[in-house]
Amino acid sequence: MDRRDPLLRAACRISRRLGGGDGTVEPPHRRGWRAPDPAAAAAEFEAGCGAAARAGRRLSLALARGWSAAGGHAVEEAARAAARVRALARELGPPRRPAAASPRAVLDDLRQLGDEFGGRVRVDLRGGAVVATTEPIVLRDTPLGPFAISLGLSGLSGRPGSECFECEALDPNPASANPSVTHPHVQAGALCAGDAAAPIATALAEGRVCDAFCLVRAVLRTYNPASAYASLDDWEARECGDCGRSVPADRVCYCDRCDRELCDGCTTCCDGCGAPCCGGCLERDDEAGTDCCPDCRSSCERCRRSFQVTGGDGVGDGGDLCPGCRADADADADADADADADGDGDGDGDGDGDGVGEAGSWAGRLVAPEGSPADGGTGDDRGGSGATDAAAPHLVTAPPAANAVEAPAPAAGDRPAA
Amino acid sequence: MKVLFINNDGGGFADHIDVADGTTVARLFAERLPGRHAADYLVRVNRQPAAADQALADGDRVSFTPLKIEGAAGGAAAAARRADVRRAAADWCGR
Question: Looking at CA atoms only, how far is residue B4 from chain A in angstroms?
Fold first, then answer.
């Protein structure tokens, strides 16, 4: 046997740890009892013995007095009490300390470990660990990848248990809600062994390292929905970006505008293009009762209302004005067109479309006010209100033609161009 | 004859037991794990896979190890999980 064999060296180290060679001594009252709580089991055993003793005394009294019926009952009661005491004795177990496993036995166990794990076992003497790798674990169609089960040799002193093991996910697919949960029963590398805790502890105490590894692997292969760090039903669930609810991965919706993940309840279709959107990307037109995405809505330049610009019944095809303001603008345009003399709608009466009368002149004739120099007056009489305006000629418009538009009255002080 | 029997299901104790001559692995399994299915266990005799009809010999080492065992979450995680379930139920009722 090669003393440099890593398995042999690991076996010697494990045997030394389990044998208490480092000076660790288990308290006598805890040493080797089968019952998890020896004190409680002993109290129950004492009570059972007392009940059996009382039944025995009643039986003796009944026999002494010839009470056959009472004696029969006493016999049955004593038998039941005795059976109970025997059961308590089995549960309590005889005090014994597990024999320290020899290096040879541990070596055989480590070799068996290689067989059970298909050769995927390695010994890290420097790190003080034995590592076995499982096959890829799949629970309820959820792939979790293979796990490296690592037994730390330093933890084998005292009362070794499942806490001596670490389970590292080699191809992690953690729970979406908690990245440290790589398996329903593994968090941050620590296994919660559940029903396997007791047999793992016993196996390690007896040096049955292979059995302990196999038990850990059995836990990794099993899903206990009643007690898991994360449920497999929500393993790949996503969080709705609007309401925060957990959504199964196969039922997630996405906002077509901002790619936010949404649940069914928070997804609304744009009334313009029909694209699914989140609440943040849709804006409501309270007057029309529609919800539209940014591509299907615009803001009115006049009233600042948000309105639909595409789709449907052609509502709001007027671009920057909402339907209401567009209707108002159209009405104004129609009114302007009606007042245009040449029908061209510019109101200047000369048909050139510039809105100004012929050769820049007003559409009308000037009439000198009474008393003005043009009227033969001195022009100095400025009395009365509005005296400034009284000296200026004022415009008298000609009777409007059939399609003419009334020219605006000149402001005070304005003089018509020559 | 005596065999070293290792039951890794439940208590996980190892003990020398008396078995009748000619006892097979299947018979011992049925006696020690009544109502269970051998297919759910790693059955090893002297650290090697064993057939159901293999007869045991004096001094054999027999182990039965379950292939699946239910684990658990830690106390705080289980309590948090229960709170989440209650909260989800309340939300559902509120809808």
Answer: 13
| Nearest CB to A224 within list B42, B65, B72 | B72
Q: Is A185 on the interface with B (CB under 8 A)?
A: yes
The single residue listed with the structure tokens 């039922």 is A251
Alpha carbon of A328: minimum distance to chain B alpha carbons (Å):
45
- The complex's ipTM? 0.80
Give the residue extent of every domain in chain B: 2-93
A41 touches B: beta carbon within 8 Å: no
Q: Which CATH architecture has domain B2-93?
A: Roll (3.10)
pLDDT (tens digit, 9 = 90+) per residue, A292-343? 999 898 888 888 888 888 554 444 455 588 888 888 988 988 888 888 755 5
Per-residue pLDDT reduced to its tens digit, A261-296: 999 899 999 998 999 999 999 999 888 899 999 989
Contacts of B40 (CB under 8 A, 6+ apart): B66, B67, B68
Please answer yes or no on whether B6 and A211 come within 8 Å at the CB atom: yes
β-bridge partners, B14:
B6
pTM: 0.57
3 state DSSP class of A396: strand
Asked if B71's CB is within 8 angstroms of A202's CB, the reply is no
Cβ–Cβ under 8 Å, residues B12 and B65:
no
